[in-house]
Amino acid sequence: MNGCPRQLGGRNNLIYMSLPDYSYERRIWNIGKISAGIDEAGRGPLAGPVVAAAVILPEGYEFNGLNDSKKLSPQKRESLFHQIKSLAIATGVGIVEPGEIDRINILRAALLAMEIAVKNLNPQPDYLLIDGNTRTSLLIPQETVVNGDSRCCSIAAASIIAKVTRDSIMDYYHNIYPEYNFKRHKGYPTKEHFEALGRFGPCPIHRKTFNGVFQYRSEP
Fold first, then answer.
1. Angstrom distance (rounded) from CA 149 to CA 69
2. Fewest CB atoms less than 10 Å from the CB: which of 23, 36, 79, 143?
3. Exposed e or buried b for every residue in 140-177, given b needs 16+ CB within 10 A?
4. Per-domain residue ranges for the chain?
């Protein structure tokens, strides 16, 4: 059951982990309103877009194993992605490309992606639950939830939609720019990625203002 502690390890080495639950959403449901969870994927990479997702879940539905996307295997993420897309009341995605990230900075780009994701929801929510500590500029009532993808079911669902969507985009770019091996690292700053940057320089989807990329720019 979501929200209940899970016991891991042997008798003398106990670790308790808590899954996300519906305590945040329930406050909104209890007054007859619709809430949406919001999260993003791709702030840290050196290449590719930042992707956000907004998800409105059906009241109280239990998705087996729902959790922060970073804590799930690729196979489990993919399985939950399809469940969420099939069973959610609504999902919306927002994508902000590298050129815009360079123009407005990654924080603003992530917030913009969240705003686009919310605008792509139908129906529109009455209340937003946003992962992190920064609110959007949307006029919809909202609150931020630090570590929300580990605490709130609809934010966890949004983290999965955003992560799987972004990973598929980076897999597509791998076929265009195979020399960077985006399929493996998804644009994140790994040793392999830095070696490719040193050898080939940035490609069109690299974030040219990011440390680790701008050093290799050939243009002034």
1. 8
2. 23
3. eebeebeebbbbbbbbbbbbbbbbbbbbebbeebbeeb
4. 20-215
- Provide the CATH topology of domain 20-215: Nucleotidyltransferase; domain 5 (3.30.420)
Query: Quick count: other Cβ atoms within 10 Å of Cβ 179?
Result: 10
List the chain pLDDT tens, one digit each, 220 residues.
Answer: 344 333 334 433 333 357 999 999 999 999 999 999 999 999 999 999 999 999 999 997 889 999 999 999 999 999 999 999 999 999 999 999 999 999 999 999 999 999 999 999 999 999 999 999 999 999 999 999 999 999 999 999 999 999 999 999 999 999 999 999 999 999 999 999 999 999 999 999 999 999 999 988 765 4
Distance CA 168, CA 87 (A): 21
pTM over 0.70: yes
